[in-house]
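Chapter review: from sequence to fold.
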Amino acid sequence: MRLTAIASMLIAVLFITAAAGTAVAQVNLEKLTKPALLNETAPDKYQVKFDTSKGEFTVEVTREWAPLGADRFYNLVKNGFYDNCKFFRVIEGFMVQFGINGNPKISAALSSAFIKDDPVKKSNTRGYITYAMAGPDTRTTQVFINYGDNSRLDKDKFSPFGKVTKGMNVVESLYGGYRGTPSDSQQQIKMQGNAFLEKNFPNLDFVKTATIIPAETK
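The token string follows.
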């Protein structure tokens, strides 16, 4: 009897979520370990709701700003890539960076799944989200949200593809006590996953879930 009641509650939760129009991501290991399958074209506009250890924030993506970046982000979110990702580089006044998966198998599969650069159409100012990269045409999964005016990055082809529209106060409250130190150990993070970060940097905030929601109409 008790199991039946629990099952009914779970069905109700799923129904309510579907009715609200939220696309709940489930980690799709097959697609995330076979990057060629991450090939859907994103909508012209879409929103992503991030539920984090500090609260929620929403990013609105405009595909026209950076089509290749918007498509990759859409596929990653839709297949659960950012769930449980840590905010491993948080520098006050500059930016917060995330996007190394907690599962080393997924990180290994995507580490060389590069996408070409998009022309820079928007500037790296407060609230805009952009891919991190190590040079031309090296974008993969890591992104950062600008805390301030970082327009100096525009000339280096850092092309924003979206903007935080709700919850910027949450973004700015993410734990920054380690500053950029965890980022110096990216190879260890990729090889050991969240286990490395939880052992060495236990206070890092993280994404609980990232889900695609319909863009608001104006």
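Two observations follow directly from the output. The chain has seven helices and eight strands. The domain at 24-213 is CATH 2.40.100.10 (Cyclophilin).
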